[in-house]
Design goal:
The chain is α/β, with parallel strands linked by helices. It contains 16 helices and eleven strands. It folds into two domains: about 240 residues, Rossmann fold (3-Layer(aba) Sandwich); about 70 residues, no CATH class. It starts with a helix and ends with a helix.
Length: about 375
Amino acid sequence: MSKKRKIIKWSLFAISSLIILVVLFGVWFISLLPPLPESAKNIKNTLPSELTYLTENIVPNRGKILAIVTSTDSMGNSGKSTGYELTELSRAYYIFQANGYDVDVASPLGGLPPVVLDGDDMKEYDYAFLNDATAQSKVTNSIAVKDIDPIDYQAVYFVGGKGAMFDFPDNEYIQAIVKELYESDKVIGAVCHGPAALVNVTLSNGESILSNKKISSFTNQEELLLIPDAPEIFPFLLQDKLIENGAQFNEGSLYLNNVSEEGNLLTGQNPWSTWKLAESMIKQLGHEPKKREITAEENSIAILGVYEKNGLDKAKNMVENFSMENILIDRELLAVHGLLAAYQFRIGKFINLIRLLRYSNTFL
């Protein structure tokens, strides 16, 4: 056999072996995840009327909150589609509604805005939002920001989604809404890429609204991990722009809940910060948020946060405590963070999170 043939033979053997190992790893990894409960199989049909958080102990009307979403459906000239993140609107929408606030939806252009639906992240509140005729009418007929009178609202909430990087920063109507509400001691909230709305806001005193403010948003690390060529696609990296304009950037752990509060200016780092941000806005409006059942996803995010700060043993203790109290956790989310660690070649963290996942399965 010639030397070239031997090289080809062993190359094919190595590639075949690698494929087999990857397949075996995939089968093993999936085996760590418990089967979906029956309740989760019909989740796409969830209606708002089935959510007791919305139907029980109804809070009297307290006014209106404006939610602003992007009108941009593509990331620059990259050919990649985008829009607003549904989960960042739906969850905040129902927090506001449950706490007595009507919610109007606006966008830079008005009308039907583009939306990003991530099936892996969609839960009951998100599907309820899609099945909510009133909410969908507000989205489909979103108000153009040029037609908004800020005086009508107690707060504004900027929904994330990568499209916000293109049509929020330089929109004069958005800037006017933020300035009016902020200087009237009303509440400004923004999550993930939503803080792009703040980067060019100048207050009456001539200072940037960001000056010396603790601010959170989607971080450079989070952005570049998903989109390595982000600096070429976006007009700027949001973290860099916020710092450039005077913000004291508060960076939390990768893809975990992190909210910054600066008086009536509140910002959240990523989609997993939406629940806390929305309820923090309710507190800033002067009310104790209505009690609700914390979601399994939030509980898993809390466990991962404990792991990041205090290590594996403390995280396992939290899993055990949750299990003793019949508190649900989202094991798929633990698995996803394990895969993220592997993707970053953080093998020690990957092994620990798999150990944590397997430990959580002992309580099933």
